[in-house]
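Hi R.,

Here's the chain you asked about this morning:
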Amino acid sequence: METEEPLLNVSDVRAILEARGLSVAEGSWEKMENWVEILEVLNRRVNLVSRQEIPRIWSRHLLPCLSLLKLRDIPNGIEFCDFGSGGGFPGIPLAICRPDLRMVLLDARRRKCDALEEMTEALGLENVEVVWGRGEELGKTKAWRRRFSAISARAVASLERIEAWTREIRQADAEIHIFKGGDLEEEYKALKKNRPDARLNQTLLDFDEFPFLRENQKYLITLTFPSK
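And the predicted structure, written out as tokens:
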């Protein structure tokens, strides 16, 4: 018999991450609570996340996103692209917790970009820029070519496609942080066929306080492509 999935709140997520050594400023937690409230309101007008997911925002979305700050070393002051940002995961919480990052929320859907603009303006996030467009097209322009030191994506496509779509906008030694679930062996094989130099760091999101992520094989995958 399956155990019932707990519904976590901001205090629960904060306790889980602080127990693992992640320190986030008090004001950042308050701002994230404010953002979740704004997201819930905007989601009635624009489909940013599944309505069934709204009660699980903290557990299924914020907990994995913020885990990136603990599981990976994100350098200070870099330009960071949240690719296919959608509802702002993980770009907005990362920008809230790390105001040193210069965050670009990139999405190909105009309505979602409009909603992202509303959210970032309401939160006063001066380190965030919302961009409507496609990475593979932006990369053809001088302003965006080889721009980003790090990129995040949340299961917007296969590993192979994410690599291809972001190739021209990221620096040669950039890291791509991808949140995906399930058996990824075939995806990794397809990626290696086209990019044999690809290196993959796969971390299972594993929290005893919230076993859902582990039981459903939710991973943080970081791709790098060492310079020749």
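The first strand starts at residue 79 and ends at 83.

Let me know if you need anything else.
M.
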